[in-house]
Design brief:
By secondary structure, the chain is an alpha+beta fold. It is 41% helix and 19% strand. The protein has 11 helices and 16 strands. The strands form 4 sheets. A 7-stranded mixed beta sheet has the order 10-9-8-11-12-15-16. A 4-stranded antiparallel beta sheet has the order 1-7-6-2. Helix 2 packs antiparallel against helix 3, helix 5 runs antiparallel to helix 6 and helix 6 crosses helix 9.
């Protein structure tokens, strides 16, 4: 089975190529702003909002007379910028129509003050062990050799700048080589509880420490930002200070991403089913005492990586109901501790007397929730239209009289995907 995957690595351009990269990024930024302005004008005048193709034809007519400098760059940079604008513009009104809360921001004009930005190229793109060949720009050297797939089909290349460094991300279509990992037969299905003190606690007693990427660098970041604020605006010293701040932010992001990639890769390669909570991150961020610590975790990125890596490694990701009291419920008898506080790291069940670690107890409850939910859906789908019991189901479960260990083993043969317990469906 072939999958679409991205490979990102750092470029090592020379001065001429660095100038060409800046020109392409400038073209993408200019075209995006120009197209956004045209859409706003058309909407205000009551006209039909032009799409990406209409804007592209209109821009081609203006190139010869008003913007001849755009011919020095690849036409793909402007085309893909208009497609990105069209997607952002459509998604905004779709979210407004559906009443989705949160990311309802209207597309904003791009500014060089917020970074050089990025651009996407399509067409004739080839990668070797030492360089990547991009349209118009040519062959650009790579800092890391033998990483990009050489014989794979390249769909597109996205070039971006971060803290003075240039990166290329190739979107390629390759054969899936990640589902051959041996699964843990002792614990094929696990629950994972995310937290601040410990980043992830697994129901099989495995823990992953929080790297505290931002917290560990906060003192240095404050010092650099204080130095930046004291520099004269538009001066060379201020630009150098801004680069130092950007490099530190880049370092913090790398530490966070490295920890998340290691955890999600280990879990999806060794487990068959992973149960996580459907956390309301935006609501949690409203607690100003915990907002910085929660944003430093990267909870949404953790879930995103689990979902796509689960498809690669034939690991089913189950999301539990958002209102399931995983931390307050006793995993032994089911008694609910309504008086549990956030500061209580351990608590005693008043019904059975069992002593619980807060995070591990939540992970065990998530595991049990996933087993019960999958079994409930499976028993329903085993009945055919005549009301008779079928020979099997989409979940790969066997007979209903299996014991607990047998049930968990049968669930472990499920393929990759995402199953929402509260929606009772795959997505």
């Amino acid at each position: 089975m072939k999958i679409i995957r991205g490979f990102k690595t750092e470029l090592d351009p020379n001065d001429r190529q660095r100038t060409a990269l800046l020109q392409h990024a400038g073209v993408a930024r200019f075209v995006f702003n120009w197209g956004l302005e045209r859409k706003i004008e058309a909407r205000k005048s009551g006209e039909k909002t032009p799409g990406a193709m209409e804007l592209h034809r209109e821009l081609n007519a203006l190139k010869k007379t008003d913007h001849p400098w755009m011919y020095d760059s690849s036409k793909c940079a402007g085309q893909e910028a208009l497609r990105n604008l069209d997607r952002a513009y459509t998604n905004f009104f779709r979210r407004c129509k559906s009443g989705t809360k949160g990311k309802n921001s209207f597309p904003r004009f791009k500014s060089k003050r917020n970074g050089i930005g990025s651009f996407r190229l399509t067409g004739s793109i080839h990668a070797t062990d030492t360089n990547v060949k991009l349209p118009v720009i040519g062959a650009v050297r790579l800092k890391e050799h033998s990483y990009l797939p050489v014989e794979a089909r390249v769909l597109s290349a996205t070039v971006s700048e971060r803290a003075g460094r240039w990166f290329v991300s190739l979107q390629v279509k390759i054969e899936n080589q990640y589902h051959h990992h041996e699964k843990d037969e002792l614990h094929p299905i696990v629950g994972v509880d995310l937290g601040i003190k410990t980043l992830a606690v697994v129901s099989d007693s495995t823990t992953f420490e929080n790297p505290n990427a931002l917290k560990s660098k906060m003192r240095k970041l404050k010092r650099l930002q204080r130095s930046l604020s004291r520099k004269v605006k538009e001066s060379s010293n201020r630009k150098r200070a801004a680069k130092r701040v950007a490099k530190l932010h880049w370092r913090i992001a790398n530490v966070r991403a490295d920890a998340l990639h290691k955890i999600t890769s280990q879990l999806t390669r060794t487990k068959s089913v992973i149960v996580i909570e459907d956390l309301n991150v935006s609501g949690m961020m409203k607690n100003h005492c915990l907002a910085r610590a929660i944003s430093d975790l990267g909870l949404h990125e953790f879930r995103r990586q689990l979902e796509y890596k689960g498809e690669w490694n034939d690991c089913l990701i189950v999301t539990a109901d958002r209102f399931f009291a995983s931390s307050k419920t006793c995993s032994e008898c089911g008694w609910v501790n309504e008086n549990l506080k956030l500061s209580d790291r351990q608590w005693v069940c008043l019904d059975c007397g069992c002593v619980h670690d807060r995070d591990h107890n939540a992970a065990v409850n998530l595991e049990n929730w996933g087993v019960r939910s999958l079994l409930a859906v499976s028993s329903t789908e085993r009945l055919n239209a005549c009301g008779e019991e079928g020979s099997g189901s989409d979940f790969g479960l066997g007979e209903t009289d299996l014991d607990e260990a047998g049930i968990r083993h049968e669930i472990s043969v499920l393929g990759g995907g995402v199953f929402c317990c509260h929606e009772n469906r795959f997505r």
